[in-house]
């Protein structure tokens, strides 16, 4: 395998530092320029973090290879944490420590991986001296999903489940949802269908599944334009009705997807995640997956939105600006909708004679036991067409200089997107030849 050396972007280096100690100030140059549409939203109802919920999964420890030389985890291609942190920064505040999931920052950047020609995805490995931890190297593992042209993607039956509760009236969240969905409809064609369910005090259908023909798009956009805030938040009722619609129009040769647009607040019906997650898990096994798209700062539930997507074999994104909506629903629509490998797991086995210690950066809520790697009943992550997965390890060698040989074996296990059997193992070996890092723009 050809070894490539890519520099870690400066903001990413700061995130790696954050994974060890979150109390770090960011220099002004690291703060992205805010979208003009969001400059007026610096404070929500006088409170920058009102009722915003995150879950902290801790920080992975450095492990001695004599105690355990194998690391196993499920892939994750979500990037919501990056967008949420950016939204904090644009409001002049550091993000909550629990809001920063390192792997979602790492996966936000483009590393120019080579796409596979025939396999579902390619595996690329590199190692370079750590810019952040003296005496360590960074082992960089990258997966690139097979690319599928927009005209070759599978047709989609989409059901939008839209939160129209009172909280969605804050910061004009619902207005921004409407703008984002308008972008998505523009990318669909006559093979695709769209249905719309809304929920406030209860749930009801706004639009029965309608094909995105020229006239059909006008009907769909008209329905989106009529959305108005109403009542409290019965998320369970909305998802239940949305899944019923999706199941009724399920077609095995199409992508069957529920797309939830919400701030994640659920204050009516079942407010906890348990009942909703059970429904989503059952429907996922039948072939209906879910994407969750978050909107709003303050009065926002990141925990619920992430769990819904993880349980439903989908992806979780957060929209803080129109350009982010365009990235999700226009530029990366095929990857968002079309899964090319499911239950993808990565296992890294380090050579104890060459590596003394290692630490996986991020993926704390994706860790698996060693035996889970070959257990196909264990759920893992999905990779969409053209999507990438990046994982970083800090590695300490037993010698000051490497001898050029391999020091670890990287194994990938996955299933075909529409089958239950494992598609086998992809193996690659990483060798380290220390070189200085070269600056590279993100």
Q: Helical percent range?
A: 10-25%
* Fold-level CATH name of the largest domain: Rossmann fold
* Outline: globular
The CATH class of the largest domain, by name, is Alpha Beta
Kindly report the name of the CATH homologous superfamily of the largest domain.
von Willebrand factor, type A domain
Give the oligomeric state.
Answer: single chain
Approximately what portion of the residues adopt beta-strand conformation? 25-35%
CATH architecture descriptor text of the largest domain: 3-Layer(aba) Sandwich
Provide structural commentary.
The chain is an alpha/beta fold. It has 2 domains: 65-148 and 339-431, Sandwich (Immunoglobulin-like); 150-337, 3-Layer(aba) Sandwich (Rossmann fold). Helix content is 23%, strand content 28%. It is built from 10 helices and 18 strands. It has a 6-stranded mixed sheet, sandwiched between helices. Strand 17 and strand 18 (422-431) form a beta hairpin. The longest helix is centred in the middle third of the chain and has 15 residues, at 173-187. The two termini are 24 Å apart. Residues 1-14, 18-42, 420-424 and 432-442 have low confidence and may be disordered.
């Amino acid at each position: 395998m050809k070894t490539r050396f890519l520099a870690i972007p400066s903001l990413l280096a700061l995130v790696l530092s954050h994974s060890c100690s979150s109390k770090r100030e960011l220099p002004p140059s690291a703060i992205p320029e805010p979208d003009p549409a969001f400059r007026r939203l610096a404070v929500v109802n006088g409170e920058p973090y009102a009722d915003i919920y995150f879950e902290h999964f801790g920080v992975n420890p450095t492990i001695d290879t004599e105690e355990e030389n194998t690391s196993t985890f499920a892939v994750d291609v979500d990037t919501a944490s990056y967008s949420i942190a950016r939204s904090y920064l644009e409001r002049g505040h550091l993000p909550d420590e629990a809001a920063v999931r390192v792997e979602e920052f790492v996966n936000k950047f483009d590393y120019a991986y080579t796409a596979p020609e025939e396999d579902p995805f390619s595996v690329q490995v590199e190692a370079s001296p750590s810019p952040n931890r003296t005496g360590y190297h960074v082992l960089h593992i990258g997966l690139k999903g097979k690319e599928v042209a927009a005209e070759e993607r599978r047709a989609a039956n989409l059901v939008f489940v839209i939160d129209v509760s009172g909280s969605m009236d804050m910061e004009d969240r619902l207005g921004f949802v409407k703008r984002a969905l308008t972008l998505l409809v523009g990318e669909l064609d006559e093979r695709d269908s769209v249905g719309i369910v809304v929920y406030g005090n209860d749930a009801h259908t706004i639009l029965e599944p309608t094909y995105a023909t020229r006239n059909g798009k006008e009907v769909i956009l008209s329905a989106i334009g009529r959305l108005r805030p109403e009542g409290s938040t019965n998320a369970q009722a909305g998802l239940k009705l949305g899944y019923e619609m999706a199941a009724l129009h399920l077609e095995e040769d199409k992508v069957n997807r529920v797309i939830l647009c919400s701030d994640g607040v659920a204050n009516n019906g079942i407010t906890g995640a348990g009942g909703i997650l059970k429904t989503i898990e059952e429907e996922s096994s039948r072939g209906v997956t879910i994407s969750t798209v978050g909107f709003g700062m303050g009065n926002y539930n990141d925990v619920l939105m992430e769990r819904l997507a993880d349980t439903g074999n989908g992806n979780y994104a957060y929209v803080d600006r129109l350009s982010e909506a365009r990235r999700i629903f226009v530029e990366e629509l095929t990857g968002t909708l079309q899964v090319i490998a499911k239950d993808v797991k990565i296992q890294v086995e380090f050579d104890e004679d060459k590596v003394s210690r290692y630490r996986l950066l991020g993926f704390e809520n994706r860790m698996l036991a060693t035996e889970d790697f070959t257990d196909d009943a264990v759920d893992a992550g999905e990779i969409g067409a053209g999507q990438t997965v990046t994982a970083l390890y800090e590695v300490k060698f037993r010698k000051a200089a490497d001898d050029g040989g391999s020091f670890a074996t990287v194994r990938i296990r996955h299933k075909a997107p529409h089958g239950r059997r494992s598609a086998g193992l992809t193996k690659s070996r990483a060798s380290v030849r220390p070189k200085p890092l070269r600056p590279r723009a993100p």
